[in-house]
Structures are given as structure tokens and as C-alpha cells.
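Revision sheet: C-alpha cells.
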Amino acid sequence: MSKGVVKGSRLALVALLFCAASAFAWPWSESGEKKPTAEDQVRIKDSLESVEVRNLQREVEALTRIRLQKADSLEKLEAEHWRKRYAESQLTEEHQAESRELDGRYSKLSTDLGRVSEEVMASKNVTGEAEEDAKSEESAYDALNTQVKLSIDKTLGDVTGDYPVGMDGRLLRLREASNEAEKNIPNTLAAVQVYMKDLLIRHEMTYTQDFGKMLSQVGNRPDVSVNRLRLGTVFLGEVAVDNGDVQALLRSGALQGKIFEWNANLPVEMSAGIRQAVTKASSIGDSTQNAVVSVPLDVLQNKAIKNSITDTKELTWTEELQAFFKKGGIVMYPLLLVAIFALLLSLERFLVLSYRGHIGKRFMKKLYAMVKESRYEEAANYCLKKGSSLAMVLFAVLNKAGDSREAAERSLHESLLREQPKLERRMGLLAAMGSIAPLLGLLGTVTGIITLFTVITEVGTNDARVLAGGISEALVTTETGLIIAIPVMILHGLLSEKIEKVTSELYVQSTSLLNRIFGHEEKA
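Predicted:
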């Protein structure tokens, strides 16, 4: 804006000077000869200076106005700036005041929150401790109930192998206790009460005795009226009222799961002793409770009583073999088949090797005589009539006697390749039979052990003879498998050695024949 004012002032000054010059030139132009004087020049100069001064003044005034305008603008801008600064200061002060207020409220809330958090943590700790105590108590109760349940189940599993008197009542009581322990909310106290009641009854039976009449089964006769005498849990004898038959409850060591079984097959002396004891107990009555009754029986039953007191007879070797075979179970049948098959294979191989591998001195002597006389065709026919492996190999050489040695060797090689498989036939099968036998024995042992553990699960392990008898019966098949496998492997080794001997002799005799036939030709 200032540049435009200055430029306009300069243009006005130039126009004024031009007008002044024209005014001074007019008088000169009229005469054409009159020249301006010095005074005129001074006056013109002063006039120009005054004009210039006025122009400068106007320019200064314009600049002053511009400066004033700019100063006003700057003052306005500065005033506006300070107003904004003041407003910002006011806003800053208000913000700081609000911040201080919020900080105070935040500090208070933080303090309150920390206090509440501490209270919550303390409550949680108390609640957690209470929950842990409750869980601990619940776990202890569950562990106690589980232990009671396991004890009940173990006793329930052992009942079937325990003393059979009162077994029905014991099964009912133990089943009731087991049901109490298996409820959704177990009643452990009731289960323990019923369980302890059963144990007390069982314990009481161990230290009590009784005598009375009842119905029982003696041998094959059901519903027989008998006099029964029981002494604790170690002796129980019965005598039939009608004919005096005697039977006693004895321990058994069989694998069939019967810990106790009735035995009516007693020796005459034992039957008479039991009959006398029962009769004496019947005659005593209730008047003399302290009377003593002698029982002719090992009441502790620590020995194999069944084998020692029953009537036994001497078994023949065939009966013992049958009993041994039955003791091994179903696996004995495939073992028997393996033994028979291996024996037949061994016999067949022995006969074949004896026939095809036979090397007669007379045969070789006669054959070499024909070869010496160059009667090759006759010698070949003689080999065909013999039919052994050696004869077939020598025939292959004699059949090519008219050709070269290379042709005879090729024919010999082909013949050896045909004869060797005939000699080694079924030897692999025989070796397989020797390997299968112990595996079948092991299978029978595993099957027997599984049966044994099934019996133990049902009747428990009260009698160690059940466990020992079961393991003994389970090992019968392993013994049988080894008895079969050892001879089979020995026969396989002997037959293999015989095959190697025959094969080696074939190579020796055939090579000797080649040398006898073609050796003379090479010399010739």
C-alpha cells in the first residue's frame, strides 16, 4: 500500500514540473529571443523545491497515516493476542483448579479403593481358607468312604472263598454296607456299622461251636436229616440219621475256585472217628457244657488234607498221562498235534534221506568199471535204474560224456540244483514245528494265569494252595512245549547235518566222475 502512494506522489511531482517549465517557456517563445534571468531561475528553483517539499510532506503524511494505520492494526492484534492470552490463562487456571479437584477426588477414591481391595482380599483369604478346609474335610471324608468301600468290596469278594457257614447272611450284610457306601451322598457311618457287625459275627463264629439237627445233602442224596457238629471255623462234620453216612467240610487246593468243599469219600477209620465224635456231642446235651469231644482231624488243616485223608489208589502211567494232559487245558491238543506232525516229518525226512542219499560202494565200483571201459550209455542206464540223488547227478554227467567237459559241467550243475531242493524239502517246516511248540506252551501258561487270576478275583487269596496249584497247572503247557521242542530241534539238527553230508558227497563223486571221463581225453 505504501509503494503505491509513493509512486503516485512521484507522478504528480513530474506533472507539476512539466507545467512549470511550460509557464516559464511561454514568454521566451513569444519573442523568440528573450532568455530567462538568474532571478527567474532562482524563483523557478524555489518553486520546484517548494513543490518537491510539498510532495514530500504529502508523502510523509501518507506514510504517517500508513504508520498510524499499521500501529492501530498492531495494537488491535496485540490487544486481541493479550485477550486470547488472558482467556487462555483463565482456562488454564480453571483447568488447573479442576485438575486439583479431580486429583483430590482421585486420591480419595484411590485410598478408598485400596481399603476396599484390602478388605476384599482379606475376605477372599478367609473364604479361600474356608473353602480349602471344606475341601480338605470333603477329601478326607471321601478318602474314608473310599477306604471303607474298598474294605467292604474286598471282604465281599473273599466271602465266596471263606468258611461257607452263614455265607448267605454275610453276603446280605456286606451288600447292604456296600450300598450305603455307594449312595450319591454316602452314609459312611451306616456302612461302617453294618460292616463291623458282619466282622463281629464272623469273629464270633470263629470262637463258638454248635451242634444240631438239620437237612443237608450227603453225597448225591438231597434233603437228608443229619446231625451237624461245628467247632469254630476249622471243623464241620455231619452224620446222616438214617444210615450213618459221614461227610466233612475240608479245604481244597484246586483251581476250580472252591476253598472249602464237602468230602464224603473218607477212610473207614476217619469216618468212624467223626461218627463217634458227633454221637458223643449228641449224647452230652446241654447239661455238661465243659465236656471234651475228640475230633479225628487236623483242625488247622495246614497240610494237603484232601490228599492225605481220602481213599487214594495207585494210578497207571496211562492214567497219570491222561491226568497230566487234562491238567494242561485246551492248549494241550494243538501241542499234541504239533508233536505228531513233527514226528511224522522227521520220519519222512529220515526215510527220504536214507533212500536218496544212499551211496553204495558196490554201485560206485561197478559204475567206475563201466566208465573205465568207456561204456557210458550202459553206465547211464545203470544210474537210472538206481534212482537215488547220486545216481541222478552221475547220470547227468554220463549223459554228456560224448560232448565237451563244459557241457557235462553245465548238465551236472542243473542236476545238482534239481536234487538239492528234494533233499532239503520240509526242513523249514520241521524247524517251524520246533519253534511253535514252546510258543504254544507259553500261550497255555498265559491262559492258565488268566484263569488263576479270575479265580483269585472271585474267591480271594485266603488259601495259598489255590495260588500255588493254579501256577503249577498253568506251567504244565510250558513244560509240554519244551518237551516237544527240544527233541524236534535235535532231529532237525541231525537231519540238516545228514543233508550237508549227502550234498558234499554228491559234489565229490560228480567231480571225480568228471575227472575220470574227461581227464583221459585231455591226456590223449
